[in-house]
Amino acid sequence: MKKEDKKIPYHLGIIIDGNRRWAKKRGLPTFEGHRRGAANIDKIGEKARKRGVKILTFFTFSTENWNRSKIEISYLMKLIERSFSKKYINDLIKKEIKLRVIGQKKRLPRPLQEKIKTAEKLTKKGKEGVLILAISYGGRPEIIQAIQKIVKKRIPPNKINREVIDENLWTRGLPYPDFIIRTGGEKRLSNFLTWQTAYSELYFTDKYWPDFDEEDLDQALLNYSHRQKNFGK
User: Fold this and answer.
1) Which domain holds residue 69?
2) Residue 15 in 3-state DSSP?
3) CA-CA distance, 20 to 133, in Å (whole number)?
4) Is residue 95 included in any domain, yes or no?
5) In CATH, what number is assigned to the domain containing residue 198?
6) 32, 73, 171, 202: most buried by Cβ count inside 10 Å?
7) How far apart are CA 16 and CA 20, in angstroms?
8) Annotated catalytic residue: which of 19, 40, 42, 65?
């Protein structure tokens, strides 16, 4: 697929779903599903970038995921922490990709918080694209926190508009996502970028995330290129 042949979303969001079901279907431990899923983030992220996507947001761990077993959460936190390796960060710097993490970062283990802080600092000058990882993220908590910040700033009610809310979200300074892909067969957004996706195009696939490959990405992007927004006009 040649990116010049079709419309490419500037900001693509991906809800990665189906890691556990992928593992269960194959008689493998749940942890193996998460490991394969994590590896696929790098693979699909690189393919999307080469096709012209400039901002890519992965929904990796939701606020609701904290309700899972302590063993699974511990494994996921360690898996995420390992992903912030020196090699990976250097690769982002080389490609001039800016890394940004959104979510309730204070709920994360301290070592992971420190790695995130370091990675964001080292990649902040990236000009070729933005990689956003939504970790301990929830759209409603994000909106609640934005309201709390607005109240704390004592902004008059008649001065509160979309721009003011945008400025107080975790995604401040970023354009809304044009296109959202969800794997795993579910057809809902599950608290992902609740405010920002009001006019995003949605695409759902039954493929479990570890199986979602380059061909699946191309099919989704082709589907997007055939859509036309009119914003109610």
Assistant:
1) 8-138+178-225
2) strand
3) 20
4) yes
5) 3.40.1180.10
6) 171
7) 11
8) 65
Which residues 6+ apart lie within 8 Å of 40 measured at CB? Answer: 16, 209, 210, 212
Do 98 and 126 meet the contact criterion of CB atoms below 8 Å apart?
yes
Look at residue 6 in the predicted model and tell me its pLDDT: 75
Q: Is residue 45 a contact partner of residue 14, using CB atoms and an 8 Å limit?
A: no
On whether the CB atoms of residues 76 and 65 are closer than 8 A, the answer is: yes
Residues near 110 by Cβ (< 8 Å), separated by ≥ 6?
A: none
The reply to whether 32 falls in a domain is: yes
Active site residue 158: no
> Considering 17, 19, 40, 191, which one is annotated as catalytic?
17
- pTM more than 0.85: yes
Decide if 125 is inside a domain. Answer: yes
Domain count, the chain: 1
Q: What is the residue type of 228?
A: Q
Question: What CA–CA distance (Å, rounded) separates 95 from 191?
Answer: 31
Beta bridge partners of 173: none
Spell out the per-residue pLDDT of the chain, length 233, in tens.
Answer: 454 457 999 999 999 999 999 999 999 999 999 999 999 999 999 999 999 999 999 999 999 999 999 999 999 999 999 999 999 999 999 999 999 999 999 999 999 999 999 999 999 999 999 999 999 999 999 999 999 999 999 999 999 999 999 999 999 999 999 999 999 999 999 999 999 999 999 999 999 999 999 999 999 999 999 988 766 66
Q: What is the pLDDT of residues 108-135, one digit of tens each?
A: 999 999 999 999 999 999 999 999 999 9
In a domain, 163, yes or no: no
